[in-house]
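**Discrete fold encoding**
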Amino acid sequence: MTAQLLFLYFAGMTVMGAVVAVAAPNLVYSALALLVTFIHIAGIYILMNAEFIAAVQIIVYAGAILVLYLFVLMLFNPKQENLYMHKQYKVGVFLGVVVLFLMLFAGYRTEILSQGGSYTPELVADLGHTRAIGNALFTDFIFPFEMASLILLVAMFGAIILAGSGRRRSKGPGGRVDLSRRKAAKKALADS
């Protein structure tokens, strides 16, 4: 009974944190709600006796990924981003509903949701949690693992391009930065 109550608490807080992370108008509040979501997901892992995954969840997601999100948030101008987000709100909701429908359709059509896991408690007891995760990740689930790494690589390149686009400077002949305009502007200010 206690495990069920704890699961209901962790699941409810995870869903509420995710909703606040998406719907909060302030980006910092969204990041804090995402932290609450990550911590409560780790609690669900602990209830499933997967302490290693819970520790990785806290270290990687609540630690590294959330700090990365906060650094990205510092690059954006919140006033401009709020205007842009409101313009794209209807498109985002539509695409979210379409993707959710496609995921559910694919899950029910291929009977993925009704299949049990291939790793039984006996196998996990024989191998240990870490080794069972490694075997599953690098044998049965190698393609999704590689796809996730490719998506993260594309996201990293996108962040680099977005961060660098605001720092372009005019270049003169030969690819050198044209400092003559700056010198002329400084001289005009000094003369006035």
